[in-house]
Design a protein that fits this description.
By secondary structure, the chain is an alpha+beta fold. It has helices at residues 35-43, 45-56, 100-113, 123-126, 135-140, 143-147, 159-164, 168-174, 192-205, 210-219, 231-236, 263-266, 272-283, 296-302, 374-388, 395-406; strands at 60-67, 70-81, 86-87, 94-95, 245-247, 250-252, 269-270, 287-288, 291-292, 307-310, 321-323, 328-331, 337-345, 349-356, 361-367, 435-439, 443-450, 453-458, 463-466, 468-471, 474-477, 488-494, 500-505, 515-520. A hairpin with a 2-residue loop joins β17 (443-450) and β18. α2 packs antiparallel against α15 (374-388) and α15 (374-388) crosses α16 (395-406).
Length: 523
């Protein structure tokens, strides 16, 4: 299984990797995007999508295109479930993954436009229960900081706790135990649960749950009748796209991804038809059919750069990758502002939204396969035809390579677990490792003896994982969940008296929270 945390460096929006020109309004040499040029691109979508599905095997796609406030393309392709062959339609419900972020920032913008909160409202004033590692940061942290990923939290902080089975409230509470990865407001780390806290705090100011607020503020006013921020609604939708992963040369619906804990950042489910209405809202500056849904200035702020996601490698020739409030902010080859966001679940979903606001043009592409770059390739090909007259590159291959690199495991890269050590040191008697280990972030981890030897128990449900000896005091186990890749090391360390004192769990230590102290023996 691939590991989504490797997606972190550019933090979803890999279209930004192809930025060729600085941000600007429409430059003098940019070709105008006309209804005729957009129609040419629409006419080629069937060929573009069919080619991408044929080459990758991704089971299904649904898409919508809006131009000048008109829905000019709305279609489904392929199947929503490879076991039944049920087709994808324009009302098939997909999990959006991180395309939930710009959807969620639209909901918060509606509160900002009505004066219920401001982008610079302090989190501590809205949700006094939330704490960062440093109190001075807690006192200053704002909705803007969390929505632009500049809080200082480690990259993807809390995602590992979600995999262990912790719920939203407990994950948000435990973020305080992670030391900052950089100075507050001086860097960028993509954090699903940082953004979730901002959304939850805003919802508290409105006296609503996030899930109810989203429906009241956005989905119902836009007639998005099949859209929800609750997993239960997706799970019971009769026309839903199951998530698929590659198993050899087949695509199978092996996993179920419940993202309720991070709903504002990754838990929306929707359809191509519903999202076409949201595209109209975005390109219409908060209005649809003459009705003001979101304040224009509050919405515009989500489109403005707030943080440098990736600094230019060479500041003389390269451009930074920028992040707004739930949006990647870049430019196309002609220098026109381009807004985008990708979404991806390693357990079987990939999505993208791309807007060219100066041309009132946008596309959303939804798929039900693990991320291999298909939504991005379709969107890039469409925009090439609309703006340049023809597809400029083989985007399926290009994004396939980008995603393969981006999805590389975030742990275990320096080790080869396919070959055992030539002369491994023996382990201690297994009873020497048995005990209860604790830290504030992960909680209680128990090491005990199971039917197959040493066993690791993690999370609130104390799910068991078998350990396999590797070398000396080093064992391996196979993690599970969205962020699981291959085996991870479990390394025991002894004190000066020779007894085991700590354990370091490799995949939980990416953010610095995976070292636990032994507090008692068991048995």
């Amino acid at each position: 299984m691939v590991h989504l945390a490797g997606f972190r460096m550019a933090a979803l929006g890999l279209l930004a990797a192809l930025v060729l020109s600085p941000l600007s309004s429409r430059p003098a040499n940019a070709a105008e995007v006309t209804p005729a040029s957009v129609q040419r691109a629409v006419d080629q979508l069937d060929r573009i999508v069919d080619d991408a599905l044929r080459r990758t095997g991704v089971p299904g796609v649904a898409l919508a295109v809006v131009h000048r406030d008109r829905i000019v393309a709305l279609k489904g392709y392929g199947v929503r479930d490879t076991t039944t062959g049920a087709p994808v339609g324009i009302d098939t419900v997909f999990q959006l993954a991180s395309v939930s972020k710009p959807v969620g920032s639209t909901v918060v913008a509606s509160l900002v436009g009505d004066g219920i909160v401001g982008w610079d409202s302090r989190i501590v004033d809205l949700d006094p229960t939330f704490r960062m590692h440093e109190e001075w940061v807690t006192a200053q942290l704002t909705i803007r900081d969390l929505y632009s990923h500049r809080s200082g939290l480690p990259d993807h902080a809390g995602d590992d706790l979600e995999d262990l089975g912790y719920g939203r409230e407990e994950i948000l509470r435990r973020l305080r135990f992670l030391p900052p990865a950089y100075q507050f407001r001086s860097g960028y780390n993509y954090t699903n649960f940082g953004m979730t806290e901002a959304a939850v705090a805003a919802a508290k100011a409105a006296g609503r749950s996030w899930e109810d607020l989203s429906a009241e503020r956005l989905y119902r006013p836009l007639g998005m009748t099949r859209t929800s921020s609750r997993f239960a609604d997706f799970a019971t939708a009769p026309d839903r796209a199951l998530t698929h992963v590659r198993v050899g040369d087949r695509w199978e619906p092996r996993f179920v991804r419940n993202p309720d804990a991070q709903s504002p950042a990754g838990g929306v489910s929707s359809t191509a038809r519903d999202l076409a209405q949201w595209l109209r809202l975005q390109l219409g500056n908060g209005e649809v059919d003459g009705r003001r849904i979101v304040g224009a200035e509050a919405l515009a702020e989500t489109h403005r750069p707030q943080a440098i996601a990736v600094p230019p490698a060479n500041p003389a020739t390269d451009h930074p990758q920028l992040y707004g409030l739930g949006w990647n902010v870049g430019s196309d080859a002609a220098g026109r502002v381009r807004l985008s966001h990708s979404g991806a679940f390693a357990l079987g979903a990939a999505t993208v939204v791309v807007l060219l606001p100066s041309e009132e043009l946008g596309i959303v592409v939804l798929t039900n396969g693990e991320p291999v770059g298909v939504p991005e390739a379709i969107a890039a090909s469409f925009f090439d035809v609309a703006t340049e007259g023809r597809v400029q590159r083989d985007y399926v291959s290009l994004y396939g390579r980008i995603f393969a690199e981006a999805l590389a495991p975030a742990y275990g890269r320096q080790y080869d677990y396919s070959q055992p050590p030539v002369a491994p040191a023996p382990a201690r008697p297994l009873g020497a490792y048995v005990g209860r280990y604790v830290n504030d972030y992960v909680g209680v981890v128990e090491l005990g003896l199971g039917s197959e030897g040493l066993e690791l128990r993690l999370g609130p449900l104390q799910a068991p994982f078998a350990l396999r000896h590797w070398d000396g005091d080093i064992f391996l186990y196979q993690p599970a969940g969205e962020n699981a890749a291959g085996p991870a090391r479990v390394v025991f360390s002894a004190g000066i008296d020779g007894r085991i004192e700590t354990v370091t769990i490799e995949n939980l230590n990416i953010t610095g929270g995976g070292v636990l102290r032994r507090v008692s023996a068991i048995g």
